[in-house]
Amino acid sequence: MAGPTTAERGAVRTESESGRPRSGRSPDRRFRLPGRRFLLLLSSVIVLCAGGIWLLYGSAWLRVEQVRTSGLEVLKPADVEAVAGVPITEPLISVDTEAIERRLRQKLPRIDSVDVERSWPNGIGLKVTERKPALLIEKGAKFIEVDAQGVRFATVEKAPKGVPLLELTVDQSPGVGRFGTTRLISEAVRVRDELPGKVAEDTRVLKVRSYDSISLELSGGRTVMWGSGEDGGAKARALTALMKAVPKAAHFDVSAPTAPSVSGS
């Protein structure tokens, strides 16, 4: 049987080298142009994004129109809002809430913390927590309020009811150079926090002569020698026991809580 002719073999070789299938079909393209459906979807996404940006920044619907302040006891809403400086009519999304918080805490020391929140669609909320006085330092005819962290945050003309007076008589004490006035005030606050409930209510004056010499003046002319701010829990328990055992005593000493003592009646 005769094989393929030379011409036929050349045709086969030419077809193989060209990489085309013998059927004569063109190979599938690796990159195709986007279809109509894809272009419509892409256009929709772009329109939605542009509309959202315009709604947040360009429309008149989501702009600051009001400020609501809560949590105040001493401060007035108008004063707080004036310091806050919330940009009325500005887009709500662009309000710098952290900057508002910094201004309030820097310019109003009575504020312990504040949360600045966006209230959609057109408000800003200021949730304020004010510092509360734990002790008072008399200064002339006025009083400096000291909070539970030892921070002196305000000067008032009238002493708040139920807040003990702090007397610092440490000018000649060697403890001042070692600890400093700020540290001694912190120790006084520490003692105030450790007092038993009834004793805390009855405390009128808390005196600090040195780090190791802190005493209390209670209602009814009673006094308590507390000592340093250390071992506050043990001292509180000892004082409670002494007052129950000798309720008419005039002077209590719990500076050494393992060996407390009383005197007077």
Q: What is this structure, in a nutshell?
A:
This protein has helices at residues 6-17, 36-58, 77-84, 97-107, 175-194, 197-202, 232-245, and strands at residues 66-70, 111-119, 123-130, 135-139, 142-146, 152-156, 165-168, 203-210, 213-218, 223-227, 251-253, 261-263. It has 265 residues and is α/β, with parallel strands linked by helices.
Features:
3-stranded mixed sheet; Ubiquitin-like (UB roll); 265 residues; 35% helix; 2 domains
Describe the secondary-structure layout.
Elements: H1 6-17, H2 36-58, E1 66-70, H3 77-84, H4 97-107, E2 111-119, E3 123-130, E4 135-139, E5 142-146, E6 152-156, E7 165-168, H5 175-194, H6 197-202, E8 203-210, E9 213-218, E10 223-227, H7 232-245, E11 251-253, E12 261-263
Parallel strand pairs: 1-3, 4-7, 7-8, 10-11
Antiparallel strand pairs: 2-3, 4-5, 5-6, 8-9, 9-10, 11-12
